[in-house]
Write a structure and sequence with these properties.
This protein is mostly helical and 399 residues long. Helices cover 72% and strands 0% of the residues. It has a single domain (11-398), classed as Amino acid/polyamine transporter I, CATH 1.20.1740. α4 (73-115) runs antiparallel to α11. It starts with 10 loop residues before the first helix and ends with a helix. The protein has 16 helices and no strands.
Length: 399
């Protein structure tokens, strides 16, 4: 009896997976924050982040190819920094994701308040979080149909907002281009990068892609360029159509902007609100499960008697890790009230994990011979710059 190996996917499918991994609800938090801190020059920050993300993605894809075993950031960073460095990298990534989910839960409350105005956004966000934790604890995962609905809900408001705003485009809104100075343009990268996190998930495609050494980097390049175009068009359309005076606070919803630009089409703004809400809830639902699985990896890698005992006694399972992840998100949700801190802390922790991992490639002689490390060095430099800006932002906010 002959058995057939499962068919492998091509570049186009791999590119779509990369798009799905990157295009998320995070982009909807950016427009008002960028306009408030940077002005029209925020578009430049997007272009810088696209280049930076590509260098990082190619480097992390290379790591996934060289070290395909389970453990991701732990495995990568461990190669040069040992067990402690590996634990620091994967733990930083874990914490960054928890903070990001705290922000998304807070946003879910803001969007839910559109439909339940009698309740505070804080209470609504907590209710959404508790429901999503419960669903994951009972093993209710998003179906394939649900995943398709999620991507539609995410892309729909991007397309509708871009198309509507372009009808109101005026070059006058681009003047002054950088009212807060070009230093703030670079600092805005710590906010912009939030919308691109997720690309690292696509680097695990080597086992299912044809000719992976060649096609995974190609797929990542295509997906990053496409996401960069979509995001830049989205942000650019809002900036070119909206006078800066309309951005009254950095946590404004997209619908608030649309209502000011199109006062006779409030129903479209409500529909956009619903789509964004569905995208946020769907993203958090999927992430709780994924981060719970990551926590299991962290616990199993830890080398201390307590974690070993927990694993041996069966205490480390899907329900317990999801519950713990839920508690951590709740802590993030209730302790962080400053929108900027959510952005900066997320960028700081996740980019730290990227840098710790990429350094491994600098310790491999073959990478120098093949000149692969030119991209790695550029990835480390740009990532370190974003990390430094995020760290400075945290210090400023706390002071």
């Amino acid at each position: 009896m002959t058995t057939h190996a499962p068919s492998k996917i091509g570049v186009i499918t791999a590119t779509i997976i990369g798009l799905n991994a990157m295009i998320g609800a995070g982009i909807f938090t950016a427009p008002a924050a960028i306009a408030s801190h940077v002005g029209p020059a925020g578009i430049v920050a997007f272009l810088f982040v696209v280049a930076s993300i590509w260098f990082m993605a190619v480097s992390i894809a290379r790591l996934a190819y060289l070290f395909p075993e389970e453990g991701s950031f732990y495995t990568y960073a461990k190669q040069w920094s040992g067990h402690l460095g590996g634990m620091l990298a994967v733990s930083a990534y874990f914490i960054g994701l928890l903070i990001a989910m705290g922000l998304l839960c807070r946003l879910s409350g803001t969007y839910l308040q559109t439909f339940f105005p009698d309740y505070s956004s804080n209470i609504l966000g907590l209710v959404a979080l508790f429901i999503l934790i419960a669903l994951n604890m009972f093993g209710v995962k998003m179906s394939e149909v649900g995943q398709h609905i999620l991507i539609v809900c995410t892309v729909f408001p991007l397309i509708v907002t871009t198309a509507m705003c372009l009808t109101k485009a005026s070059w006058a809104n681009l003047t002054p281009f950088a009212p807060y100075g070009f230093t703030n343009v670079m600092k805005a990268t710590r906010i912009v990068i939030f919308g691109f996190f997720g690309f690292e998930c696509a680097t695990s495609l080597f086992s299912i892609v044809k000719d992976p050494a060649k096609n995974v980097p190609r797929a990542l390049t295509y997906s990053i360029v496409l996401v960069g175009i979509i995001y830049t068009a989205f942000i650019g359309s809002i900036i070119v159509s909206t006078p800066m005076s309309y951005f009254t606070h950095e946590s404004m919803k997209i619908s608030d902007i649309l209502i000011q630009l199109f006062p006779n089409y409030t129903w479209i703004a409500k529909f956009v609100d619903f789509s964004i809400l569905a995208a946020i809830v769907g993203t958090v639902h999927s992430m709780i499960w994924a981060v719970g699985s990551l926590l299991q990896v962290i616990i199993k890698r830890a080398r201390n008697p307590l974690t070993k005992k927990l694993v041996q006694n069966g205490w480390v399972n899907t329900k317990t890790t999801v519950f713990f992840v839920g508690l951590c998100i709740l802590l993030s949700y209730t302790t962080l009230h400053n929108l900027n801190l959510f952005f900066y802390l997320t960028a700081c922790f996740i980019v730290f994990a990227f840098v710790m991992s990429m350094i491994t490639l600098l310790h491999i002689k073959e990478e120098w011979k093949s000149q692969q490390n030119i991209k790695t060095i550029l990835g480390i430099i740009t990532a370190t710059a974003i990390f430094a800006f995020a760290l400075e932002g945290i210090v400023c906010e706390l002071i």
